[in-house]
Amino acid sequence: MTSKKVVELFYDVASPYSWLGFEIICRYKNVWNIDLKFRPAFLGGVMKGSGNKSPAMVQKKFLYMGKDLSRLTDYFDVPLQHPADPIGVIFKKGSLSAMRFLTAVQEREGGNTKAEQVSRELFLRIWNEDKDITEPGSLSEAAVKAGLSESEIKELLELYTSPKMKDKLRSTTQDALDYGAFGLPLLVCHVNSKAEVFFGSDRFELMAHCIGEQTNTEQHKQINK
Ligand SMILES: N[C@@H](CCC(=O)N[C@@H](CS)C(=O)NCC(=O)O)C(=O)O
Fold first, then answer.
1. Among this protein's residues, is 201 annotated catalytic?
2. For 116-193, where are the E strands, in sequence order?
3. pTM of the full predicted structure?
4. What start-end ranges are recorded for coiled-coil regions in this protein (predicted)?
5. What's the gap in Å between 136 CA and the centre of ligand 1?
6. Domains of the chain (ranges plus CATH)?
7. For residues 148-166, average pLDDT
């Protein structure tokens, strides 16, 4: 049996393309021979550290993104809807607390299952329900929906603002930057001791080719249903 190839997904719930990348790789993880590692990172830190700026700050890109995302939503069957005030949601409210919370979920669990569920609930809140993801009450609601117990949530609410979680998120974001990130999502495939880095949710064909797998969007989009 061939050993599983490690694939890291760096993502931030404030990034709609991260949601697409997240859902697509979650579908493929069920059919590809990969060991998927979630790496919750902070997009603001990636932008700052790489000297880039969000495409939402360039008017033409922002307009194009709106159309592009609507088409992708339909194609990939991910229920993305634009919040009423995207700029306020992305830049004013931001995702720092949510990403620290996810860091804590992953740290506490030492695995992926709960991180996947809580990430999905946070993506849904921001990109489908137009709900807050900054307040402790909002994080707690997402965790309840993800199936976490009352005692787990209580522990997480104590943990996520700790210096340890702040440092962990900072170091994950630095890992993304060290791989050359200038935006998210970032997928890193480890093949023959080499890291192959892909930016965006639109590089799955190339990624599959690189790790010796195949893509089939129509078939695989049914997998998580
Ligand atoms: N073409 C990529 C675009 C991804 C993208 O625009 N991501 C945003 C965050 S939502 C970003 O970090 N952009 C940086 C840049 O475009 O320079 C895709 O389809 O996923």
1. no
2. 186-191
3. 0.96
4. none
5. 28
6. 5-211 (3.40.30.10)
7. 98
